[in-house]
Amino acid sequence: MAKKKTNKRGSGDVEIKNAAKTLLANIRFLDVDNPVKTIVMTSSILNEGKSYVSQILSEAIATSGKTVLLVECDLRRRTLASVLGVHVRHGLYGVLSGAVQAQSAIVATHTPNMFFLDAEPNIPNPSDLFASHRFAQLLEGLSKAYDYVLLDTPPVTAFVDAAVLSHLADATFLVIRENFTRREQVRTTFDQLSKTDGKISGVIMNCCKYQSGDYYSYYYGEQDGGSAPKIQESAAASSTGASEPGRRPKGAAHHPPISQRKQSTPLERSSFGDSSWSSERTDGSYSSRRSTNAVGFSPALSSKDEKSSSRRHLS
After folding, report:
1. Which residue among 11, 269, 280, 283 sits deepest, i.e. has the most Cβ atoms within 10 Å of its Cβ?
2. What is the pTM of this model?
3. pLDDT tens, residue by residue, 126-135
């Protein structure tokens, strides 16, 4: 995911939403025969933005018309309820203990089709809770009731919870914050997830700084009510000095009209697709290089080009 300064039109928010939609599209095509339904979102260390990525990915799923359940599985550092602005009376521990039904603990969020299951504070032994047969049954039932189930888990290097849940879910994504996470930490995380046969499906780069180019400023306009780009007056018309349409200046030679060149279609290179790649920096942290968005236009004809085109027409 990318972070950038927003302009008056809020193009930064647009780009982040597009990044989440692209991530969702990639998840859908991970396995066409066996679609991914349960997803574990984790990171190597704290403050890499895994909960933020879980939130915007859930919103992207919900706005696409699919139902999604976001589950708070970071039981030692609960943050999702306050971010989503919801208040719950029951949580995950009450459902697993049989005190309440799952329908009573799950609440709707402000986004249609998006639901949330919180967890109670101070739950003892969370890793044992996730490794229980009762939680596996609950996760299976939730995957049948919702199109997607997202599990926001604690960092792998801090607790084993994510490794346990990775074995149960269909896919696991590792969120890496650019210029923040070190190579050794990522390697340790990958080894721990591999030891539990976790299904590591991919890496999500977060807090990436990049040059977006001119595409969004062209597409959405730099200002409210922005107009389309002006078409440059051809050199032939300006050189003849014609003041009125259809009138030829005195003494000017008559030539057949030059056929209008077709402009190339604006080409957008997505900065959120598989073309992005990460590289290790000299300080051991990870950085990402992404292609900038661009809009291409056909170059304008010069006076010499127009004269040579006229000769070709006459010959």
Report:
1. 11
2. 0.66
3. 999 999 999 9
